[in-house]
Amino acid sequence: MNRYIIVLTKAILAGLLIGIAGTIYLTLDNKTVGAFLFGFGLLVICSNKLNLYTGKVGYIIDRKPNYLIDVLIIIIGNFIGTGLIALMVNLGGLLDVVEIAKQTVLHKLDHKPLETFMLAIGCGMLMYIGVDGYYKNKNDFGKVIIVVMAVAIFILAKFEHSIADMFYFMVSGTWNIKAFLYFIVMLLGNALGSVIINGLEKTVKRSEKIEENHITH
Predict the structure, then answer these.
(1) In angstroms, rounded to a whole number, what is the distance separating the alpha carbons of residues 65 and 165?
(2) Largest interatomic CA distance in the chain
(3) DSSP-assigned letters across all residues of 145-165
(4) Which of 39, 132, 151, 205 gives a 20 to 30 Å CA spacing to 30?
(5) Using CA atoms, how far apart are residues 142 and 146, in angstroms rounded to an integer?
(6) Count of beta carbons in the 10 Å neighbourhood of residue 110
(7) What average pLDDT values come out for the chain (217 residues) when binned by 10 residues?
(8) What pLDDT sits at residue 57?
(9) What is the CA radius of gyration of the chain?
(10) pTM (two decimals)
(11) Cβ burial 92-105 (10 Å sphere, 16+ → b, else e)
């Protein structure tokens, strides 16, 4: 199978899981509980090595330029996956979910673009910490904790997750030019936040290695 088809398929599956997690979150009145249950989506994505934009974009500084093609395909796949769940919710008659999604989107679009960008940076940071921490942690319990906590924190902090917001836009039927432009701002913010944490980690490790070599010699 073509590598890009595999990338797309894994991205669609990741989108489906974010759509399901988003539906759970919108269904519950208790948003704290919803924030923790949302973590189920990212946990399954990580454990199955699926392709979620916010979990992959932070590694662009580690890869060759053609990795950007993968990232673009992942965005498309995430769009398809979240769109399928949005369609399912609407055809399933979950009107309460649709209505809450509309209110959620209206609130998000009330932010100024710079505010949205800053909130997206915060989410990007937490998503990189959660995903990278999952793969680096050798303890299964530790893997679960870091992923679930990273998701719960970004939701409760009201940071902006581009793919989750993509789902909210679609399930509420509020895709328009403004929503699309805000989505682009979220994508860029998530990317910058992820890259910042990745870059800082590498800087610290490089400094530590230089210090160790200095002490050794």
Answers:
(1) 27
(2) 70
(3) HHHHHHHHHHHHTT---HHHH
(4) 132
(5) 6
(6) 9
(7) 92 98 95 95 96 97 94 98 98 96 96 98 98 94 96 97 98 94 98 97 82 65
(8) 97
(9) 18
(10) 0.93
(11) eebeebbebbeebb
DSSP 37-104: HHHHHHHHHHHTT---HHHHGGGGGTS-TTHHHHHHHHHHHHHHHHHHHHHHHHHTT-HHHHHHHHHH
Tell which residue, 15, 111, 98, has the closest CA to residue 56.
15
Amino acid identity, residue 144? V
CA-based angle 24:72:91, to the nearest 5?
A: 35
Burial class (CB in 10 A: 0-12, 13-18, 19+), 149: middle
Residue whose tokens read 């936040």? 193
Tokens for 126, please give them: 């937490």
Structure confidence at residue 134 (pLDDT): 96
